[in-house]
Write the structure tokens for this entry.
Amino acid sequence: MLLRRPPRPTGRPRGRRRLWPPLFATLGLLLTMLFTGSTAGAEPRSPESGAQKADVVRVAEFLAECPYSHRLPDDPIVFPNLPGASHMHSFFGSHATNAHTTVNDLLGAASTCSPSIDTSSYWVPTLYANDQAVEPTGTTFYYLGEGVRDDIIRLIKPLPQGLRIVAGNAKATGTNDPTSIARWSCLHHGEVNPSKDFVTCPPGSMLESYLDFPQCWNGRDLDSADHKSHMSYPVNGACPPSHPVPVPKLRQVLRYPVSGNATGFRLASGPGYTMHGDFFNAWPAAEMQRRVTNCINAIVKCGADGNPS
């Protein structure tokens, strides 16, 4: 007796026929989620908001560009009300600065700074090249949070209006003198090691000077007898108990249009290691507060307008 093989089914089993449409739907949903980056019940992220977050530079900073204003043998911090008593100074920012200047004079005067709302005065001993006065063509004053720990950056207070500071030492005795703190270097030529004294820059470069001001305040005095004791530099990333109030660090960066042999260079105060800077704060209090809050405390890099750059 021959046994016949059961006939092969010609169609899909009824129980499996309905599985494919739901499977295709599920696969389509997964592909949609993969390529759109969205999930059910969630709003898709805005490309603009992601770009804005990526563009924020996490550096506590704002700045002022304050070109050269004028030159006088005056110093309203060290020799107030004594015109002509100082060596020659090059002034930046306020047009009004002279031996008699007060903070109220600065607040009401025009300024070379961008932003113009910064009516502070900044000055340094004049640079001479072969006895010819040379003024910097690059004059940037950075206000920074660096130098202290991040948790302290978020506690930094505004520089008080009327604060006066001298950084560096006009009477420094040499490059080994610890009171000489400015550095000279060459623009775009890192192969030239920075030095406390003048350096020889390659042709086409520019001579640069960097100077950091102290960023810890005693919380009481706008000045002191030596114009330094009311301020202090941080110790191990924090302000010392004697000067407990952290404030923005002022960094002065000047670029002079000279290069080549440095033997003909001198400052009005003497050799390169006598470089020093004076700062008389005349920022409007509300504007200083805004920039400290939005740029320094927030650890965001801001431009001259005080907004993220």
Notes: The CA atoms of residues 73 and 88 lie 4 Å apart. The chain has one domain: 59-297. The helical segments are 20-36, 47-55, 103-107, 150-153, 285-297. Residues 59-297 form one domain.
